[in-house]
Batch of 2 targets.
Target 1
Amino acid sequence: MNAPLPLPALDEIREHENEMVALRRQIHANPELAYEEHATADLVAERLQRWGYEVHRGLGGTGVVGTLRVGNSPRHVGLRADMDALPIAETSNKPWASKVFGKMHACGHDGHTAMLLAAARHLAATRRFDGHLHLVFQPAEEGQAGAKRMLDDGFLKLFPCEAMFGMHNMPGLPEGRFSIVPGPALASSDTCLITVRGKGGHGAMPHVAVDPVVAASSIVMALQTVVSRNVPPLEMGVVTVGAFLAGDAPNVIPGEAKLRLTVRAYKPAVRDLLQQRITEIANTQAAVYGASAEVEYQRRYPMLYNHPQQSAFCQRVVTDWLGAEGLLANAEPVTGSEDFAFFLEQVPGCYVFIGNGVGSEGGCMVHNPGYDFNDRVLPTGASYWVRIAETYLDRQAT
Ligand SMILES: [Zn+2]
Ligand SMILES: [Zn+2]
């Protein structure tokens, strides 16, 4: 069988492919969880310094920002990668599999870091742009809002980007092709804990108790009407009760029941509506049964909104380079979430997916113990970053 053809990449990036693959595998073998990315941050900072970047450390704890200024243009652009791994035990058995039991790069952030570093090296060697280039290596993308912590620590005061760009691999999409969705591209992700309080008692004497299990069951059923009856039919919303916790004996009516929810939306107005209706339903349904409900609603990641002008820019960069086939024609929003959304709330920009491959070649979904970043995609992703930076900070631009 013939080996598959290499994916498109800039020649100078291809020259360093072996080194890029080795670096990706080194990061993969040594995964670090959110806010613990010390060795990874050391590695990133050391490389950036070696190539002539001004390096700023400590934003968001373990975040690293490398800045390179070329020419006199006042323009600033930020490119972002993430560095954290997940608390999953790897099952791949590959030679570069995680050396740390219970931790692994199951979301490909090892690949993201390696691609941005390869671009960093190239951009510093060739200096074919005019302006300030900020390369952002953020901690804690996985549920711990590292991007928000970098912003809270003054990221935009130190590095006032006029646009920011992000990229994530996506298994199931053809390798090295790009999915770009202008507008809402990923959902907001909130959690909600509903504690239903009744009055515990003997299972044989329900008439002198207030049963929180029945009240909570009624809440679960009523919540099914939020998306079907309250959210406008053309809008997207998800309300999932992922956990129902109550009681531990057949003959005891417990004093309380707990529900844990995940809540998703693509628009702020829908997000507000979901929070409002969940709260109203929990309170009124509990009251019907003589119980009470406490609703603790936590807003976690906002929806990720790709700004139209910057989305069109990214689409143009891909098609000018790879032709129309570089872009996936039927790109669709996904209901996952991503904390790059915090950057895009403050700064216009665009977050794209690069295909990690299908089937046995990169098709295993992220967050699965058998997942691995597809090394064939590295040169294409690194070349994308180079094209984005050089086009955005084009010397010829007025
Ligand atoms: Zn992930
Ligand atoms: Zn990820």
Note: The CA atoms of residues 245 and 258 lie 5 Å apart.
Target 2
Amino acid sequence: MEGVSCPNCGSDAVVPIVYGTTTPELAERAAKREIRIGGYAVGVDKPNWACNNCGHLWK
Ligand SMILES: [Zn+2]
């Protein structure tokens, strides 16, 4: 996606992590592995990207 690749395994099966309210649309996209649901993460260093290949999370 947009040239982003995983710094851990090099895969381009990378999806953005979406925080906040989980809408039905977001849940559907997450089920298709287009995004990952981050839920309500408070404060500190929240990762922005998730790798569908190895599960690595990063900013
Ligand atoms: Zn990876």
Note: The mean pLDDT is 91.
